[in-house]
Amino acid sequence: RVVVVSLQGAPPNATQPKEFNTVSLCKFGQEVIQDIVARTNEIFQTLKTIQPPNGTPQGANASNEKKVKVAEQLRHVRMLFKRLRIIYEKCNDNFQLQGMEYMHIESLIPLKEEWDMKSDERKMSEQYRVSCDESKEVMEQVMQKNKHLKEIIDHLRRIIFEINTMLAMRRS
């Protein structure tokens, strides 16, 4: 399916609507997000280096230049977010045109909780339950055999004690 998109803030020679399929739009959206992250990092780097004016004309000029630079970067980031919103809306429109109106694009993004739930589902599979039951049975058998061995050892100790007692009485 092909979608016609007109992006705001595009260069003047690219103002005619262009046709993109959903995959191309998502790829372009990913590039816009990477650009937003890069621009935001630039803004933070600029903000780290800003110093308040120190009262000299040079300090005031440097401070004003940094303010203008940050304002320009923020304007550019705002424009990138608008572009990303347009791409997002076009992707959703395209999904609805393909008969996927019941599925929101956010539901296609895997979340950590969903991965945890899927691993829980795998753990609760039939094979896992059977293995757990077998493990419990084996543990019970081992505990019973340990108990039986302890009884045998205690019985042997009593017999040895009685034998030693009889030998001691015979000598005296």
TrEMBL record:
This is Mediator of RNA polymerase II transcription subunit 30. Component of the Mediator complex, a coactivator involved in the regulated transcription of nearly all RNA polymerase II-dependent genes. Mediator functions as a bridge to convey information from gene-specific regulatory proteins to the basal RNA polymerase II transcription machinery. Mediator is recruited to promoters by direct interactions with regulatory proteins and serves as a scaffold for the assembly of a functional preinitiation complex with RNA polymerase II and the general transcription factors. One of its GO terms (biological process) is positive regulation of DNA-templated transcription. Pfam families: Med30. Belongs to the Mediator complex subunit 30 family. Coiled coil: none annotated. GO terms for cellular component: mediator complex. GO terms for molecular function: transcription coregulator activity. PANTHER family: MEDIATOR OF RNA POLYMERASE II TRANSCRIPTION SUBUNIT 30. Its main location: nucleus. It is found in: Nucleus. Keywords: Activator, Nucleus, Transcription, Transcription regulation.
